[in-house]
Amino acid sequence: MLHFLRSINSKARKIESSGPKEVPPPHDFKEISSNLADNEADLRQEFTNISDIVFKQFYAGGVKILAVWFDGLINNRVSQDVFRALMLDIPEKQLLEIAKEERTGLINQHILPFYETQEVKDLAEIKRWILRSKMILLVDGCSSGLMIDAESRPQRSISEPVVEPTVLGPHDGFIENIGVNTALIRSRLGDAMLQSEDYIIGRRTNTQVTLMYVADIANPKIIEEVRKRLTRIDIDGILDSSYIKELIQDRTLTVFPLMKSTERPDAAAADLLEGRFALVVDGSPQVLTAPSVFIEFMQATDDYYMSPTVVWFIRVLRYLSIFVATNLPGIYVGLITFHQEMIPIPLVFTIAGTREVVPFPAIVDALFLLIVFEILWESSIRLPRVVGAAINIVGALILGEAAVQSSLVSPTLVIVIAVSAVANFALGSRYDLAQAVRVIRLAILIAGGMMGFYGIALVSLFFLLHMANLRSFGVPYFEPLAPLIAKELKDSVYRAPLWSFKKRPVLIVGKDITRVDTPPPSPPDERCTAGADSKRRLQKGGK
Known about the structure:
Number of strands: 14
Number of helices: 16
Number of domains: 3
Order of helices and strands: EEHEEHHEHEEHEEHHEHEEHHHHHHHEEH
Largest sheet: 7 strands, antiparallel
């Protein structure tokens, strides 16, 4: 049962699930009148000029009852069942024979026991529940109302994730309904220690945010810190989980993602089992998990559904891809401009021949191509899919070929930018990190064009020091590399077998640190093999 933890200010409000608490009323607290006409007049004045709100009056047990809800946000079957139960299951004049203040309680406990309900004594809270797509019942003569959770908002069906596609593993993804998303997580973690806490954030949107964590695995200090950060949010509206990410992460002025967003329920469940927490935001198909470290963004969900040997090779390719995506254009421009002596002689003549008719310096050509590529990337994302595919073909083939034929850029530089772009796409399953790579690549390109390898080294060192200084809810961003934790390197550049993951991450986990206690696989016992051979020989002899 949901109960508002009323706060004096208008910041995020926590919804307690353990029962009502003695707390001071908010500044907009107003008691519900025992006169039904007064309550209706107050609600109609509050929701004036709103055409899709429904005020329905009817009689049940000889007493007038008012039902209020928003059209299209309530399950019609549930509402019909509620009206049928109230009008047919309550004997005539039964409500007139009991005390007025007991009428709502009788309906709640004896007439509607199969639905999630809650008695409310605050008219301001009644208004918030209506805005949260709930049905409200007000009984004449009673100074309390009844909230019925008959919500049925428009939503799309569960489909395969778009940003994080996978070949192996589950193919269901989160949607924009918070109830469905929390159910997808809980269906994978059938653990009574999986806790959930609800918050209402946003003065205008009243968006529900659910904090989920495994109580005996998560670090209590980290959970308490995220509670504090959620309750201090004071904003007009929350339209997506990205709003929450920007408002509660440790630092804002950084290109690196400090919280992981995922649209895969299995990935969220895996993070919860490592001691992290998850934030599910109503209206967003992306679930946030934290604390996050850099090596997480170099991993994919498929890594845990494939052979460790294959995963080792794939992860090496990913680290090579991020190096190529960030450094290759800058290294090329630095070689051409400052360090020609490092290029083999045959390659020098080849590059010089392609640049002989190009009128601009290498840094200008590289910036031109990179900016054109970024424009094509953005246009392909913003345009409809059919048109976006056509834009990609036009940009990759026609514009590139025309630029080379007109001698504006060299063919070698086109190849360098293309290879860098393909390497960036290798990180596509981690879209946040791919965005950071785009900024880093531009910075290294400018440094390489101005100071050569010395500039590239300075910019790379700056980003490395910046990453080493980052924290995600107090956890070092470079963990387990800095600080070095040798036992946790089993899931970094390579992935060890699952049976070797004995412990959870030290800097994240709480009490329960044991993750796997399965012995390594071994060949069958010789006696079992001998027995099977003897049986086969007897069968052959009998034949």
